[in-house]
Structure to design on (105 residues):
């Protein structure tokens, strides 16, 4: 976990290949981590994603070399199709919780 709108993950790329990558939530901007609102956003994301298998839908890389993505998750489903079909998208959940703003980029 980096902050309220960026996470660091170990991505399984298949064929026994894994990579550590930074993911920036698409269309989301949380307050900086050194603010109380930023700390609350980070805690919310950590709690929501803890123990969940993620599906990452990438869009592009930003100027800081982070993947800009939508992040799907579900606390119990493990299969790709089930997570996408029945899960939540952290990008929208953090906005609904009032801990980040939606941005048009």
């Amino acid at each position: 976990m980096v902050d309220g709108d960026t996470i660091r993950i170990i991505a399984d790329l298949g064929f026994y290949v894994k990579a550590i990558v930074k993911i920036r939530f698409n269309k989301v901007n949380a307050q900086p981590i050194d603010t109380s609102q930023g700390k609350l956003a980070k805690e919310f994301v950590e709690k929501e994603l803890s123990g969940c298998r993620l599906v990452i839908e990438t869009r592009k890389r930003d100027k800081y070399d982070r993947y800009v993505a939508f992040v799907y998750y579900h606390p119990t489903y493990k299969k790709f199709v089930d997570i996408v079909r029945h899960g939540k998208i952290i990008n929208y959940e953090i906005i609904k919780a009032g801990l980040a703003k939606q941005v048009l980029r």
